[in-house]
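Appendix B, record 7
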Amino acid sequence: MSPRYLAGPRDGHFETFTAPLLHHGWHFTDDGHNVALFTSPCLRIRVGWLPEVHGEAPIQITASTHPLRSPLWHISLDDQACTEALTAVIGTLAHSLAESPHTLFASDDDQLADLPIPPMWGGISGLRVSHAQAPDSLASYSTSPYMYPKGRPPEEQTRWVFRVGPRERAWQARFSPAVPPVLVEAFHRVFTDPAPLGRRRYELDPLMLPHLTLTDPTTSRLADSPKSSQGGPSPQRGTVAPRMAAAPPHARGR
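Structure tokens (predicted):
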């Protein structure tokens, strides 16, 4: 199915996009009520449903240069985003922390991700201001140096914002100014990829069906098929996140 920004969650959504964290040794905590949290081995980055952040999107990522210091940057992700986009951000985060942690803690707010406007999308791309909109007008992303108030906590700031969906099913993903460009670029790459995604029909939001192009998997191989282009065997999935005893906090009436 396409476009992929309307694909929504896959079956086993939580276990899929959090698997890279456990693979790299992150610690998982769930209090069964308000907090479901992954903490990095260095204690400087948190991923999860954080009670102190009351944003529009339930998945929050914060990073600090020291476990006891205030956050340096913040990402707010909606769990109605396609699983592949969430996995791209969180997988890149886990890998970067393991291989080149210094890239995640630079304090330069002026660093800008390189987000080229995709083919068929309309918009402008400049040094300080960018905006792009999908052909169906159901997805867009933008940035501006004037979108956030200086001196506010990272969770109240926005450098990049991605918006998706019709009004009744709209969601956002927000990245504060100091977020490393590699994380924004990972989200953007999947968000704007024109290749279709594999979904079972029951995984699709019925309200999105009129906006989707469905492909019959028996006549066309979907882009993210588990088989390689050479027809090799499906790769074995690595360690996955433990199943939560209850629904994530945002689904428990938060």
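Remarks on this record: The longest strand covers residues 45-49. The chain has three helices and ten strands.
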